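Figure S4 source data
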Amino acid sequence: MNPFLNVKVAVCALGGRRGFLELPESLANEEREFIGGGEKSLYELATALAALGVDVELRGHLNSRILATITDAAGATPTVGLEPRRPEPGEVVVLPEGLPDPDLFLTAHLSGARTVVLLLGPPGLCGWSFQAGWSPPDLTVVDVATVGTPATYRAMANLGFSLWSPAWGIAEAGRRAGVRVSRIGTGTPVPFPDPPAKTADIAVIEANRWFPVAEGLAQQLPGATVLRVSSQSVYSLSTALGPAKILPWPSRVEGMSRIAREARAVGTVPVALSSNPFASPRDFGQGAVLAPDVHGVLRETRRLLGAPDELAQRAKLAARSAREQVDWKRYLGRVAAALRQLPASPTADARAEFGDEVVEEHRRLFDALRQEGLEHRGTLDALQKQELEHRGTLDALQKQELEHHRTLDLLQKEELEHRLTGDTLQEAAAENRALAAELAAARSGLDSYRSRRIIRLLDQSRAGAVIRASLRTGRRPISRG
């Protein structure tokens, strides 16, 4: 009989749309090209719960291809493709510690669910520290004493959260704070590739927060061949890391290193810092070499390159140890034990009541704001209608004004034409008067000319001679008729 028949679990990865005090949607596609090792661990945990027969949901914005790699190998899959919802009373909600805001923790706390915080790294390093005034630190320079503090562990425990972690070092930090942390370790159903032939001395992973330090180490090994591993959207970096003999890994602070484990699985020996208080030698496993500082990493890397027999022996130990660490059946056993040991919450009913009241008050406020918004929308629509009417009136007035301008332009044009016609008529009248004067003068001249011409003709005629003779004698001419 399935011991988890009535157990329901919601594992929340990163991203996903959600409403007030709701768990995120479950959206599985390939749009998220790159996901970190912590998210892969959440996929593995959800798949392990499904393999145990638990009714488990995996929520968030998921990489469907990487998830399918895990679920196909396990023969079990969590439920995906879900809408946001409120946590249900009695269910288990698993949240990663690396959430930058407290709102999902608030969602789980103000419900009747049992909350598990999966500590993939020291709390306060990548996610909220459960302390006031927290802000994300720079991982390359942060004081390791300021993260994973006893106060943080106690705050989570006092809120009723149960704590799980893959790492021995993180569990031991909780124990020192007086808080129980269930170490579930890590596991994968996907087999590692066999270690390949070694063709490079060291590997350096690009697009990684520790890349600048690792690149500096590589430059101080001028005779070494360097395998540069680019950022890849794959489930495991083992295949990419396999050709290298050594992985210099100058990580100052983190939990159980997934990259170092994937390197070990293919016989690439990690040389890492022992100063990280949240990863114990058991987390690094056999085969790895630990150094107290970056200079020590450089020194040990140079030494191992000059000790091929030791390096080969460590590579074998590393590959065997990595496979033991991720043994799927053992991982299922540890997850089952942690799930069975989850305590019931004496405050679940009260928290659920608080949450329901907050959600109801939020709904009332939202409805009131929506109604107010509808009223404002109605007022705005009326104002917009008035504005359109005013705009129509203004357009009509502008049209009338334009027509008046056109009429005025026509009148001004006609006035100009009339003025030009008047000027033309005045010029014509003046010309007519001048012509009349010239004509009168011509006529006067012509009359004078005619008079003179008649006299000359008369003088030249016989009658003129008779007249001239009579004038001389004083007698009148004798008529012959």
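Figure S5 source data
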Amino acid sequence: MKEKTLNILYHIDELGRDAIVASALKRFGKKRKIKIFYCNKKVKKVIRNFNFYDAIILPSIPHYKFYFPDPKNLPKNIFILPTEAVGQSTGRLRRIQAKYFGIDYKRDEAWHKSVKAYLLWGKDHKNNIIKLNPEYSSKCYVVGHPRISKYTTVQNSIKVNQNRNIKKIGLVCRFGAINPYDNRNNLNLIFKNMRFFNQKVPKFENTPKTLDAEDLSYTELIDLRIFLTLIFSLDAKKFKIFIKPHPRENADNWKKFFKENNIKIEIEHKFTPFSLWLNKVDLIVSPPSTSFYEILRGNKKLICIDKVISKRKNHILKESDDNNQILEYICRPKSISELIYLVKNDKKIKLKKGYLNIVKGQTNSVNKKDSIENIIEIISLQTKVKRKKIIFMKKIINLIFVQIINELSALKNIHREEQGSVFSLTIRKIYWINRLSKKLAKRI
């Protein structure tokens, strides 16, 4: 008797961040005769009404509510796999809890109660879920960090520069408030982010009432000034600068900015996987970021700039990445001159002992297996394949309409640059995603 094929849908939220995980799942799933399909928010109604999938992977409860808003008609095949889950700031971990339980725990109970399983990056995340709801322990699985899988990281070295006398410096951006990916008017963006009008946003919880949206912009402007000061302080003959825009930034604005001001710097393509870019540089300089875990696992030297200008600390929200516990173990210069000195003398950069325990608690699977393999295997064990006759028409309608919507969207926005979560999953883009993992991890 022919074995039934498992159909899994993976939601791609930010193309530059999530495409590599989607590609890796597809690649490993193929080995297990499992079909992986991709989707984005453009096709929510098709997914909702013609759900033929045996399992659907979403990054959070808010995404679950977006696809399936009716609490009385929820599917039983939802798996939550965060796309950004690492880091601890306060004891309550409110920002992370919002991903697992929604903005309002009681109001969103129908959704988080119906989740089939939580696929978590580390044991620390499971421990915090259990603290809030011990009954969910049985559906929590620690799979590991999917972007540090052997299927998502570079297996072959990349030769960017043959000149060993030139040091390659990577700058990691986090400027979503002053350089939004969707080109929103900054005045409107600040208004929408204002705590005064939006009390439910988790990032403002446990934070003094004096801090609001303008403080988010303030810290980013300080970080930008530090970046520019560093760039102009380094000898271009000895240092080559590489910049990695955040998935929620407008990468094209960076290109225009550096070109107009005649600043020589290499800006990474907006959809390049972080692990590929990371392999090009010798040293990373960055504001606090969840990417630190990927950087540390990649054994790259790292400098965090959050203490370079002392007044910056007065504008930090309690639930910000700036309060991530890993920062206590990382090199954090306290002045511009110290930052420049350390970049020029990177042998002085040291990590404090104990950082590996934090990294493991946030990124390691409990069974020591590969994260991508864990995800596929757990879903396979937890999922019952739907009957073929029932789903055949749903499948045909779903696949046809999903592709039509994406192709028409691409044509409609042909002159609009794709950024962040604003993109169309055209046939051409799907082909690119399918090949992405294989290009990075050629030896597997």
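The mean pLDDT is 89. The two ends are 31 Å apart (CA to CA).
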